[in-house]
Amino acid sequence: MDVSFDATRRELTTDQGTLRYHEAGDPDAPPLVLLHGSGPGVTGWRNYRGNLGFFAETHRTYVLEFPGFGVSDAVEGHPVLTAGSSVIRFLDALDIPSAAVIGNSMGGVVGVNLAMKKPDRIDKLVTIGGVGPNLTSPSPSEGLRLLQEFTDYPDKDKLVRWLRSMVYDRSLVTDELIAERWEAAINPDAQKTAQMMYGSAAFEMQQQFLAQSDNPPYWATMHKVACPTLLTWGRDDRVSPPDMSAVPARLIPDAELHIFPKCGHWVMIEAKDAFEATVRAFLTR
């Protein structure tokens, strides 16, 4: 199976612009949608290029590129909200009634919200860090503060510091990775999205809004997630520390939690083989 970038690249015209994605696997296999996280230079391909071939062995696997990160066409609105609506647009356009979903960090938050609001569209859910509130760890976390510093005044040194906070094994932060992420991070759409999510001013506004809002935070209503859910976490995650997992593990009725040792935020990359085996067992159970 050819799971190279060019062989799997696809695009889809919708009423809100073009969605781009990667696709591999048997067309008759059950669908699986991979949702990427956020941060400088992120794309779905960069998050999951090492996992696409594995999951395509058992599922028709789609790696969706969210609007506003420099690949799919940008749309108006907050990136987390537009990401969720783009998943529904994507499923509708491909005539997929429902699918299993894997979401990394922000992609996991998107998956949880879809599971609560559109329960008929999500069969099973796998999250990779990022879901829930900080209980005993500082908020914002070390990794998020470094991300905020980069977003306010981008330069390569700050990018490297942030990338190193994402992993347990610093050797994964290669010159090639730094160059790739830097080139993508200076894309105008990606910069606009980053400012909306992680800029200091935007962060302060979000905190004030949450303090004054009568609506509960999304994690407080996770008891509404009805589908089987696998929460995966790196024990050494400095972006979303593992104490965050306690709330979703308790509130989601059919949740199980797997924590990988010597692993940071990018579980699907740093604990690749163990992550893939654990998720396959969950998806095919």
From TrEMBL:
GO MF annotation list: hydrolase activity
AB hydrolase-1 domain segment(s): 30-271
InterPro entries, per the entry: AB_hydrolase_1, AB_hydrolase_fold
Keywords linked to the UniProt accession: Hydrolase
Superkingdom, natural source: Bacteria
Protein name per UniProt: Putative hydrolase
